[in-house]
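Loading example: each entry is read as three labelled lines plus one structure line.
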Amino acid sequence: MQTVDLRCVTIIAEAVLERRLIDDVRECGAKGYTITAARGEGSRGRRTSDWEVQNIEIRTIVSPAVADAILERLATNYFHHFAIIAYVQTVGVVRGEKYI
Amino acid sequence: MQTVDLRCVTIIAEAVLERRLIDDVRECGAKGYTITAARGEGSRGRRTSDWEVQNIEIRTIVSPAVADAILERLATNYFHHFAIIAYVQTVGVVRGEKYI
Amino acid sequence: MQTVDLRCVTIIAEAVLERRLIDDVRECGAKGYTITAARGEGSRGRRTSDWEVQNIEIRTIVSPAVADAILERLATNYFHHFAIIAYVQTVGVVRGEKYI
C-alpha cells in the first residue's frame, strides 16, 4: 500500500489554550487536527513545581515545512510562558496528498 | 532491552464505524487494538466542508504485512465514502512475538 | 526548528496499575508523563482469553537510557502477571534538554 512520509506533530498543553493553539496550527498550514483529553504531570522550568492538570493533546499530520512552522510558532508564542510539550514523528500516511 | 521493530497503525474515524473497523482490523490479522476517544476537524475531499465530530482513534501493533493488509482494506472499503485518517509508524515493541 | 531525538515510551495497561506504573516511570528517571484513557482488547498469553477493559495509556519522553530502564523495569515487574503493552518510538522534541 502506497504511503507518503509526512510529519505528525503532537502538542500537549493546558486545555485552556485549545482555541489559540488550533488557530496557530491552522494558520501555519495544517488542514486538520485531532484532539484527545489527557492528564499530565511534569516540571515547569527550574523551580520544579509539579502539576497535574487537565491537558489536551493536539495532533496534526503535515508536511515537513508546516511542521517546522508550527514548532517555530510554538517556540515564539508559548514556550516562555506555558508548560507545553511538542514533538515530531515521521509517519507513513495513506492518501498523503490530502494533508499537504 | 530487546525490542522488535513492528508497525503501529493508527486509524481515526467517526465513532459510528467502530465495530466495522475493529472487525476489519482483526480479519486482517491484528491480535488486539486500543481505542481512545478523539475530536477532530478537517476537510473532507474537495468541497472542504468542515466538520468537528466525535471520533475514535484505533491503534494496533502488527507486522509490516498485516499493516499493509489493513491499509489496503481501508482504501477499498472506506476511503471513498468516509473521512478516515490512517497512518503507520515503526515502533520498537517489547515482547514483540505476541503481536505477530 | 532545532529538535533533539529522544524516545517516547508508551505503556498501555489496566487503569488499576496507574499509580504503580507512574512511580516506576519516575524512579527510572522520567521527568514527566501524560495519561489518556483507553479501551482495549487483546489476547493474554496462549489461552487467548479475550478482554475489553478500562485501560490507561502512559506516555513519557525520555533519553534512550531511561527508556531502556523503563522497559527493563516493566519486564521484571509486570510482564509475567499483567497484560501490558509497551513500545518505543524515536521523536524529535523541541526543548529536548528539559526531558533528560
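The longest strand of chain C covers residues 49-62.
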